[in-house]
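Reply to dn_fold:

You asked what the input looked like. This is it:
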Amino acid sequence: MMRRRTLIQGASTVAVAAATSGLSVRPGGAEPVPNSSGSEPAKLKAPAGACDCHHHIYDGVRFPPKAGVQVVPNARVEEYRLLQRRLGTSRNVVVTPAPFPATVADNQVTLDAIAQLGANARGVAIVYPAITDAELKTLHQGGIRGIRFSLTSGRPGAASHAATDVIEPLAKRVAALGWHVQFNMSAEQIVETEDLLARLPAPIVFDHMGHMPQPAGIDHPAFKIIRRLVDKGQTWVKLSVTYDSSKDGPPGYADVNKVAQAYVKASPERLVWRSNWPHPSETSKPDDAMLLDLVSQWAPDEPTRNRILVANPEALYGFGKSA
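and this is what came back:
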């Protein structure tokens, strides 16, 4: 009787979440998720403690963006929980999305999401040089463990200019908190800023596998730079499908797979996986279950997959440790 009551209560919880998002969910069956194509669960069974190390939360009603900036609809915590159910992940890292940052207060959408998701959530913020030590401490207490620089859309030379004015001074400050510095930058910008990257005092995390362009892939000079940094022990790489650099495209992303496989072969202890949900730059949303299934191609053996999905995120983001 108790088992039946538990099942009914669980089904009711799913129904409430679905109603909130305007979805029709069949408990135990296929589950559609906003901003993700397909509805079937992933074929890869996520291990206990598996972490999605990069996604965004948009809640334009409660946290309005800057004037004139559009947010991704149906990308609140409620919708993300549906994605977690579909993928089988239980830990996550919320990254402040680009439309929000103007002042430190704009990380509130991320802090709020972390608070809702609880002890299994961490965050990456976008901050500016004027941020005070007290504000950094508040972010840390709220679960923030890194800062992000997104430079891929900048003008030529923008990365070097930002490095001089912003990146290095902030890296020194957040290193004292045990945070990392995350870069969303093109392969060309990685080459441009090689000297800076080599001297930063904080751990480095590269988004999108370093945006290796195709067909160059692992033969691009940026790949060798990342490999050297990883070998020094202070650098991590986020494995994900890089839609913008793939010539082969979905569903297989064969060219991107070669880049991911090369990273796994070289340094499985420095890799984490990210969904990038709700895929803000994509008008045709990918199938997140299929994206998770690609990990089986990148890392065919279970111990390596468990390292990438569980152990590495624990080391990088401090899951299981108090603030």
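The longest helix spans residues 2-21.
Hope that clears it up.
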